[in-house]
Write a structure and sequence with these properties.
seven-stranded antiparallel sheet, 4 helices, about 25% helix, binds zinc ion
């Protein structure tokens, strides 16, 4: 995917595990301005450079309900996508830049391995519902209702968790938490 690179785009520093901003409940975004659009560009570039599929504002030190997701590297990672009730193609909504999400979790629960750009070298199975239906505010001022499953549903849940100060390691099973405890302790040093 080609994206126009403007001179102002910056790779941002990704806040790491242990930083208090990762534990804050983020504030609502009150409106779209040029600063927010620049932040979106910078966060997309930062996520891409780090080979991530999602990045939330607190991960770059800002406690606002704002995040970016891009799973377009794998068109097979979802089985359906509906925008405002109509079937949509993944490339039409990727990258997804959203704020003030309202999320409904649906479907069966499934355990899938996750990692996080803010928690280096720690991975673990997280059990989450397989489908989401959410209302997302977009940078053009519109609101969309998006329903999907697969990696996109999971990435959205992971990023919305960040906006509530929740990290994937909080959602590991007791046994898995125990097995990553040493690694997490080392990250705090
Ligand atoms: Zn994360």
């Amino acid at each position: 995917m080609a994206r126009t690179i403007f001179f102002h785009i910056m790779i941002l520093e990704i806040v790491q595990y242990g930083h208090p901003v990762l534990r804050e409940k983020c504030k609502r975004v009150e409106g779209v301005d040029d600063e927010l659009k620049t932040l979106a560009d910078d966060m997309l570039e930062t996520m891409e450079e780090a080979h991530g599929v999602g990045l939330a504002a607190p991960q770059v030190g800002l406690n606002i309900r704002f995040a970016v997701v891009d799973v377009s590297h794998d068109p097979e990672c979802i089985s359906y996508l509906r925008v405002n009730g109509e079937d949509a193609a993944l490339e039409d909504v990727m990258p997804l830049v959203f704020f003030n999400p309202k999320l409904e979790l649906l479907g069966e629960k499934e355990a899938v391995e996750e990692g996080c750009l803010s928690i280096h070298e720690v991975r673990g199975n997280v059990t989450r519902p397989t489908e989401v239906k959410g209302i997302f505010c977009l940078l053009d001022g519109s609101e969309i209702e998006l329903e999907t499953d697969g990696l996109l549903a999971r990435a959205i849940q992971h990023e919305v968790d960040h906006l509530n100060g929740i990290l994937f390691v909080d959602r590991l099973s007791a046994a898995a938490k125990l097995s990553v405890r040493g690694k997490l302790k080392r990250l705090l040093r």
